[in-house]
Amino acid sequence: MLRHHEIAEADHRILNPLNDRKLRLLGDIARIGPDTRILDLACGKGEMLCTWAAAHGATGHGVDLSDTFLTAARDRARELGVTGRVTFEHGDAARHRAPGLFDVTACIGATWIGDGLTGTIALLRRSTVPGGLLLVGEPYWIDEPPEAAPAALGFAPGDFVTLAGTLDRFEDAGVELVEMVLADTDDWDRYVASQWQTVHTWLHDNPDDPDAPAMREFADRSRRTYLTYNRRYLGWGVFALRLPPA
Ligand SMILES: C[S@@+](CC[C@H](N)C(=O)[O-])C[C@H]1O[C@@H](n2cnc3c(N)ncnc32)[C@H](O)[C@@H]1O
């Protein structure tokens, strides 16, 4: 699966339905500044850490399982002149033990690392200062989906809930939702539909690659489920969650 995403998202910098403007907005909302230390679990190509280091002077550490994405992250840090401010590490974010505490900890679009939203909040919390901020990217159902939708999109029925249900999950976890930046349909199209063309081109250039049949199936399934369910029923956003003070 990781390899499929590496191929399909080769042309993306942000591996989520979030655009550059909203990523900047998120940095402003999170009050990122020169003294802010950020931990990003499942950091992908490190766009958040690199651009916030460049724009705000923040420092950060990213962890991801993909060497391909981490190479892109280090290249991006060089491109933006922030190699002294950000570091990237290969590893399983679920097992990661950060040395010390961070002001802001993030998991943007990979809450499976904590076996769901609640577990990921617990995972981030253990590396965050009291009163610090968690940034969590998570899907939600815009409307009650058809029964077949979760399985078609690769989820278990209870994995995601409505926005109000997501708020309940935050409150049950003991964090306060203080802000959010949500993706709109155009953000989703840019994230998902643009992958179809990337895969189409890759298949044209690599017809005999051992991954070609799986990539063809990946693109076929993505198109079908996106247009049938995802675009209409599935929302996505980054939620800013404040921890209680010490
Ligand atoms: C949807 S992408 C999000 C990447 C990044 N947060 C962003 O917004 O651009 C999910 C990321 O999770 C990474 N990943 C998946 N499982 C992981 C794990 N157990 N530990 C660390 N990274 C993981 C993938 O390699 C991928 O980069």
From TrEMBL:
Molecular function via GO = methyltransferase activity
Enzyme Commission identifier(s): 2.1.1.-
Q: Which UniProt keywords apply?
A: Methyltransferase, Transferase
Signal peptide positions on this chain: none
Identify which top EC class this enzyme belongs to: transferase
Q: Which InterPro entries match?
A: CFA/CMAS (IPR050723), Methyltransf_25 (IPR041698), SAM-dependent_MTases_sf (IPR029063)
Gene3D superfamilies in alphabetical order? Vaccinia Virus protein VP39
**A biological-process GO annotation:** methylation
Q: Name one Pfam family in it.
A: Methyltransf_25
Q: Where is the Methyltransferase domain?
A: 38-132
Q: Could you tell me what this protein is called?
A: SAM-dependent methyltransferase
Species in which this protein is naturally found: Actinomadura sediminis
